């Protein structure tokens, strides 16, 4: 079968024939129905003549109309598809190279968008800030490279616990951020506690030495009219409350005062 495009005349002729057949059959059908109802007398010869005339009258304008459209279409320049961008020009990934999580810039953009959506549609949204307990002491003992490997291992543990709509990022050094859209504070606290337990139970090691690694979390719910700086400030203060309560804690902030997590308080923050 040839793939050569049809000429405008051939296209118009096919359209006219199709229209003629349609009108011819429709005319016969209508006459038969009217004759059966006793409205008109049925004469086979007259029926064929009348149907043929109607078909011809319908086919002629159809031919002319389609011919004009086909010729106009033929004169249009062929559409050109945009060339695929070479791989080298694609934007770099917005992930942290060490952990594979989103980087600070990416999570900030996502957070601003989520805050806008939450305000517009009045849906709940929560944010959690977390860091590794006593990470500086770990770095001092094992070195920065081993510390980096620990962060990568922790990121893997956290990623396995992440829900599909949620987002996780390495925000700074050993600090992580989690975005929970369409989530109320009580539910976000449960999710953060699941993260905390997953890290605590993970079998992590450094230089052949088994580690008991823990994290502290500060969870806040976004409130109408709150800007990014205010939200991050509350998250930092809530995380500090978890640290002050003895670490390995999840503290929450209801927008008024951080709720005190269970645990022994300590003035030392890591």
TrEMBL record:
<dbReference type="GO" id="GO:0052621">
    <property type="term" value="F:diguanylate cyclase activity"/>
</dbReference>
<keyword id="KW-1133">Transmembrane helix</keyword>
<keyword id="KW-0812">Transmembrane</keyword>
<feature type="transmembrane region" description="Helical">
    <location>
        <begin position="12"/>
        <end position="41"/>
    </location>
</feature>
<feature type="transmembrane region" description="Helical">
    <location>
        <begin position="47"/>
        <end position="70"/>
    </location>
</feature>
<dbReference type="InterPro" id="IPR043128">
    <property type="entry name" value="Rev_trsase/Diguanyl_cyclase"/>
</dbReference>
<keyword id="KW-0472">Membrane</keyword>
<dbReference type="InterPro" id="IPR050469">
    <property type="entry name" value="Diguanylate_Cyclase"/>
</dbReference>
<dbReference type="InterPro" id="IPR000160">
    <property type="entry name" value="GGDEF_dom"/>
</dbReference>
<feature type="region of interest" description="Disordered">
    <location>
        <begin position="246"/>
        <end position="270"/>
    </location>
</feature>
<feature type="domain" description="GGDEF">
    <location>
        <begin position="123"/>
        <end position="255"/>
    </location>
</feature>
<protein>
    <recommendedName>
        <fullName>diguanylate cyclase</fullName>
        <ecNumber>2.7.7.65</ecNumber>
    </recommendedName>
</protein>
<dbReference type="InterPro" id="IPR029787">
    <property type="entry name" value="Nucleotide_cyclase"/>
</dbReference>
<dbReference type="Pfam" id="PF00990">
    <property type="entry name" value="GGDEF"/>
</dbReference>
């Amino acid at each position: 079968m040839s793939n050569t495009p049809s000429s405008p005349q051939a296209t118009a002729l096919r359209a006219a024939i199709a229209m003629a057949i349609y009108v011819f059959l429709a005319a016969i059908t209508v006459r038969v129905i009217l004759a059966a109802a006793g409205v008109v007398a049925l004469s086979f010869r007259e029926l064929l003549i009348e149907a043929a005339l109607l078909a011809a009258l319908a086919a002629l304008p159809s031919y002319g109309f389609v011919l004009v459209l086909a010729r106009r279409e033929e004169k249009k320049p062929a559409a050109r598809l945009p060339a695929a961008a070479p791989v080298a020009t694609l934007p770099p990934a917005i992930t942290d190279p060490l952990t594979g999580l989103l980087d600070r810039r990416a999570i900030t953009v996502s957070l601003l968008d989520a805050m806008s959506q939450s305000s517009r549609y009045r849906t709940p949204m929560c944010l959690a800030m977390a860091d590794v307990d006593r990470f500086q002491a770990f770095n001092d003992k094992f070195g920065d490279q081993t510390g980096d490997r620990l962060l990568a291992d922790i990121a893997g543990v956290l990623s396995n616990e992440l829900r599909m709509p949620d987002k996780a990022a390495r925000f700074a050094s050993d600090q992580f951020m989690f975005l929970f859209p369409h989530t109320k504070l009580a539910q976000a606290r449960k999710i953060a506690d699941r993260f905390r337990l997953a890290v605590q139970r993970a079998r992590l090691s450094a230089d052949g030495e088994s580690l008991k690694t823990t994290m502290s979390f500060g969870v806040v719910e976004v409130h109408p009219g709150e800007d990014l700086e205010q939200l991050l400030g509350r998250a930092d203060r809530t995380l500090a409350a978890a640290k002050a309560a003895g670490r390995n804690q999840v503290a929450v902030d209801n927008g008024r005062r951080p709720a005190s997590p269970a645990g022994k308080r300590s003035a030392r923050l890591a």
